[in-house]
């Protein structure tokens, strides 16, 4: 690795809001401390302080890699070290070096691509989401590790071995570059861009997957050339636009994914309340056809300017996902794209079904429309990321269900896109 870090626009000037944050990360989550973090914290305290502090830790309920203990939560769900100013009392009294690694690093994460490192941000952080909306996900800066708040925490979430004998990894930069180009091409509507990415993934699914050798590089080059052709893109767009179909399967799937998660462990109370209100809104729609029509009505009720705004955010969200979650985490590209489309469909469902929209209709003269929908967009992404993306076990179960249902196909991709 060359030691330098490529940074996307939305994280280039990131700064934690601290006590000003309206969706603090100091709630609900289990914060682990390993032996080294315990030693750093103990070294800053007197014997009596350490004895009192130890009472604020407990053993993990389940095994967490490297974790010796986790911080206890107050009855209201906040970390016991969360003070009345909305700040961490550990950091305030003993400094950032005494924080647990998770707290010190968040929301930064690092991805290794060959001999370089890329920084990404967790979209469970509202300030990271605001940056993504305003600035996008393109790499705009290069930083030295020494510029990080804690350079000692530069550990990799994922690593792509671009020197691998497997084409799936060795062609990573080319393939991710194609997907980013397709998904960020503002000359096409977002749904067209998503379909082009899905079509490319479908065309390569027979030979571009984990374990595939480099002998398929020629086939891949042909598919890349074809999907980047303006004529081919216009033909595919016309074909996709001409097909009339219902996304009732997609909307039923999304509702199920969201409602089941609300009944599982380690979920934010606000998420449970939100999904409950959305369920109440669609309570009379027992069939998938009725649910689809009701959802379509909710979406079409939003002004076109709002739908365009949210699609711009979703375009940036897709680009960020390509950076933060390399496609090599899945067996082949098409399943990766379908899982991304499921995320996009879920975000659309939450946003256009959000109960705040109905309340806003009665407050339209009091709150500027742009401010309201901007806040709602941030809240939607943060809630989804905190409650679903960060629960890897649950997302793995969702993936198994989709795979078992034969949903990793171009036809199912199109159904999710139409959400």
Plain-language structure description:
The chain is an alpha/beta fold and 419 residues long. It is 54% helix and 8% strand. It is built from 20 helices and eight strands. The protein has helices at 9-12, 35-43, 47-54, 89-94, 101-105, 126-135, 167-170, 172-183, 190-203, 217-227, 230-242, 248-261, 269-281, 288-301, 304-324, 333-353, 355-360, 369-389, 392-404, 410-417; strands spanning 5-8, 32-33, 57-58, 69-71, 108-113, 116-121, 139-143, 156-160. It has a five-stranded mixed β-sheet. The chain has a three-stranded antiparallel β-sheet with strand order 2-4-3. A hairpin with a 2-residue loop joins strand 5 (108-113) and strand 6 (116-121). Helix 9 (190-203) runs antiparallel to helix 16 (333-353), helix 12 packs across helix 16 and helix 15 runs antiparallel to helix 16. The longest helix has 21 residues, at 304-324.
Binned strand content: 5-15%
Strand order of the largest sheet: 7-1-6-5-8
Rounded to an integer in angstroms, the radius of gyration calculated over CA atoms is 23 Å
Please write the string of helix (H) and strand (E) elements.
Answer: EHEHHEEHHEEHEEHHHHHHHHHHHHHH
Structural class: alpha/beta
Helix tally equals 20
Rounded mean pLDDT score:
92
Main β-sheet, in a few words? 5 strands, mixed
* Helix percent band: 40-55%
Q: Kindly report how far apart the N and C termini lie.
A: 41 Å
Low-confidence stretches: none
Shape: globular
């Amino acid at each position: 690795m060359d030691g330098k870090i490529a940074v996307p626009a939305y994280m280039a000037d990131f700064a934690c809001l601290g006590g000003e944050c309206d969706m603090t990360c100091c709630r609900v989550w289990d914060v682990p401390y390993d032996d080294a973090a315990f030693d750093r914290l103990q070294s800053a305290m007197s014997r009596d302080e350490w004895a009192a502090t130890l009472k604020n830790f407990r053993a993990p309920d389940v095994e967490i890699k490297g974790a010796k203990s986790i911080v206890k939560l107050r009855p209201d769900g906040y970390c016991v070290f969360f003070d009345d100013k909305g700040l961490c009392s550990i950091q305030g009294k003993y400094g950032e070096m005494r924080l647990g690694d998770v707290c010190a690093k968040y929301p930064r994460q690092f991805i290794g691509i060959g001999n370089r490192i890329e920084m990404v941000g967790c979209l469970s952080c509202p300030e990271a989401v605001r940056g993504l909306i305003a600035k996008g996900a393109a790499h705009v800066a290069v930083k030295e590790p020494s510029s990080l708040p804690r350079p000692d925490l530069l550990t990799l979430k994922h690593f792509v071995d671009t020197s691998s004998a497997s084409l799936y990894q060795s062609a990573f930069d080319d393939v991710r570059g194609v997907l980013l180009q397709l998904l960020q091409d503002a000359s096409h509507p977002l749904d067209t861009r998503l379909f082009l990415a899905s079509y490319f993934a479908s065309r390569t699914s027979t030979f571009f997957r984990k374990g595939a050798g480099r002998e398929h590089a020629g086939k891949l080059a042909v598919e890349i050339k074809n999907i980047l052709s303006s004529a081919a893109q216009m033909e595919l767009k016309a074909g996709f636009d001409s097909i009339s179909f219902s996304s009732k399967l997609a909307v039923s799937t999304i509702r199920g994914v969201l409602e089941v998660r609300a009944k599982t462990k380690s979920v934010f109370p606000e998420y449970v309340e939100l999904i409950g209100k959305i369920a109440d809104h669609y309570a009379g729609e027992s069939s998938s056809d009725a649910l689809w029509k009701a959802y379509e009505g909710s979406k079409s009720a939003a002004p076109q300017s709002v739908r365009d705004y949210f699609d711009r955010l979703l375009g940036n969200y897709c680009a960020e996902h390509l950076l933060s979650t390399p496609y090599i985490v899945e067996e082949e590209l098409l399943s990766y794209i379908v899982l991304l489309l499921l995320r996009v469909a879920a975000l659309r469902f939450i946003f256009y079904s959000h109960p705040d929209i109905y309340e806003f209709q009665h407050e339209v003269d009091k709150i500027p429309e742009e401010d309201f929908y901007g806040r709602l967009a941030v809240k939607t992404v943060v809630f989804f990321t905190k409650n679903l993306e960060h629960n890897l076990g649950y997302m793995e179960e969702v993936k198994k269900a989709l795979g078992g249902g034969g949903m990793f196909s171009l036809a199912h991709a199109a159904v999710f896109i139409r959400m």
